[in-house]
Specification:
By secondary structure, the chain is α+β, with helices and mostly antiparallel strands. Helix content is 36%, strand content 26%.
Length: 537
């Protein structure tokens, strides 16, 4: 019947949804070629600041020496060559469940490469990411009660320019402040510009059976164009050249992100494809810091290196929360995550939060579901009469169709009434799918018994098997009279196909489907029972 055909279509569309998502990751068409603009630095007022402290007592390290900074949430390794962050370890996130090592967001030593570079450019010789700095210490830690820690690197040019590159760390924050204090000790005026960028090689692609498609690449936000992805394919085909008054540029991982946020505008966002499959994505200021002889000034930026938690990202910069990639249903996914997070705060477990959120969604859509199940129950009661119509008219499909339409009209039954309410719910289900897939809170979050990580597949495949059984149970409650033999075979195979498909899905996602299916079976059984009692009366 039409209900079953539509249900079959929806089920197959669900499979196609995941296949298309994966295909798009590999076959995204390159943007049309464009002519790269030549940057022109406009003039502007200087930026005042404190003069850099003297560097005569700094301990000089060899070029390429490591400086370590430890906070409550980060362990950072900087290199005296460029004074850049070559490694950032997130101390509150393990590499995997049971591991003794923490997750490395930035790493300049091992592929895939991902680290920061920054420096100064302008009409003179200034320190870049290849310059050698000197520093006081090689190991920095917070003292008891200390909330802010500054790490200073010193550079002195031959033409009287002195630079102090200062990083500001906060005990429990993933935001790192960057400041260049510049003293013009020369005899000529200087115009300086700050640049900050990421160097990255593309991460290896996960196996299609082991992960749904996750966006791993660059991102850009400006007040004019808002959020925009900058894929490795984009950067390979042309260099990014975007001017803006403000914004940010980022490199996104699954669950984590690194983002440069300019403190001065206007800026130029840029990218470059280097040899050995390396990519540069960053920004530079386009309004110069003008320093007369004897003057001093400061150029600043901020770096975020941490988890993609909406509550954290919203406080860093406008639009940075969009790096939590909920796809085209963000408008639905954001409130769903908000509700899920509040439930978890109440129950203290993300697994039970998923269960309760699923119950809440089912309650909200209960009127639609009830209408759907009542329609299915009526269709089941009409099965003997529909069978009689088929026997009476034999292979005359037109007569069968007309007789069925007349029967539906007489019984005041819409043959699509059982599926249309389900279609309305599909956007909510897809939005919740992305919420569960993108939420860093579910990463390594335990549920019960053998489920120690809701973001990883069920190690014993219990949840996927339960999902397949509940899906088969739903089919037993649905009438299958008007389906041809091929459709019936496909419907019988679908629970097996979906079970195999879900074997490698995160346990949190499969938990949602299992609970949703169980509630659907309970609702349908109850409505069908009421309809049967009403018919007997």
């Amino acid at each position: 019947m039409e209900n079953q055909r539509l249900f079959l279509f929806i089920a197959l569309a669900g499979v196609l949804f995941f296949i298309v998502q994966a295909w798009q990751q590999d076959h995204r068409p390159p943007p049309p070629p464009a002519t790269r603009a030549i940057p022109v630095a406009p003039s502007g007022p200087g930026v005042a600041g404190s003069p850099p402290p003297a560097t005569t007592h700094a301990t000089a390290l060899k070029a390429g020496e490591t400086v370590t900074v430890t906070t409550d949430v980060l362990r950072v390794r900087l290199n005296t060559r460029g004074a850049d962050l070559h490694q950032v370890v997130l101390r509150r996130y393990l590499r995997k469940v049971g591991s003794r090592t923490h997750y490395r967001l930035f790493d300049a030593r091992h592929r895939p490469l991902f680290f920061t570079q920054s420096g100064l450019i302008g009409n003179g010789h200034y320190p870049t990411h290849n310059s050698s700095y000197v520093v006081h210490h090689t190991n920095y830690r917070f003292s008891p009660g200390q909330q802010t820690l500054k790490v200073r690197f010193y550079w002195t040019g031959k033409d009287g320019i002195r630079v102090v590159k200062t990083y500001t760390f906060h005990r429990t924050s993933y935001i790192i402040g960057l400041a260049y204090h510049i003293m013009n000790g020369g005899a000529t005026s200087r115009d300086l510009y700050l640049y900050a960028q990421f160097l990255r090689t593309p991460p290896p692609k996960p196996g299609r059976l082991h992960s749904a498609p996750i966006y791993l690449g660059g991102a850009l936000y400006t007040p004019g164009t808002k959020y925009r992805k900058v894929t490795f394919s984009d950067m390979a085909h042309r260099n990014l050249d975007t001017r803006a008054t403000s914004g940010w540029v980022a490199m996104s991982q699954h669950y984590f992100v690194g983002a440069w946020v300019p403190s001065h505008g206007p800026v130029q966002f840029y990218s470059k494809h280097l040899s050995r499959n390396r990519y540069i994505l960053g920004y530079k200021s386009t309004e110069p810091l003008a320093l007369a002889p004897g003057a001093h000034g400061v150029l600043r930026a901020r770096l975020f290196a941490g988890p993609k938690k909406p509550s954290l990202l919203s406080k860093v910069a406008p639009g940075l929360g969009l790096t939590v990639d909920y796809g085209w249903l963000t408008v639905l996914a954001v409130p769903l995550y908000w509700v899920l997070a509040h439930i978890e705060h109440w129950v203290g477990n993300w697994g039970w939060a998923i269960v309760l959120l699923t119950v809440g969604i089912k309650l909200v859509f209960f009127p639609l579901s009830a209408a759907s199940y009542r329609s299915m129950a009526k269709m089941r009661r009409l099965q003997p009469r529909l069978e009689a119509i088929k026997e009476r008219h034999g292979n005359d499909r037109q007569q069968v169709q007309q007789a069925m339409i007349e029967l539906y009209r007489t019984e005041k039954l819409n043959p699509l009434g059982g599926c249309l309410p389900m279609v309305v719910q599909i956007p909510v289900f897809i939005a919740l799918y992305w919420v569960l897939l993108e939420s860093v809170d579910l990463r390594q979050a335990p549920f019960v018994l053998w489920i120690h990580d809701l973001s990883a597949p069920d190690p014993y495949f219990v949840l996927p098997i339960l999902m397949g059984l509940t899906m088969a149970g739903q089919q037993l409650l649905n009438p299958t009279l008007n389906m041809d033999p091929l459709q019936r075979k496909i419907m019988l195979v679908l629970p097996i196909v979906f079970t195999v498909f879900f074997l490698f899905f995160p346990a949190g996602l499969v938990l949602y489907w299992v609970v949703s299916n169980l509630l659907s079976i309970l609702q349908q059984w109850w409505i069908t029972r009421l309809e049967a009692a009403s018919a007997r009366a």
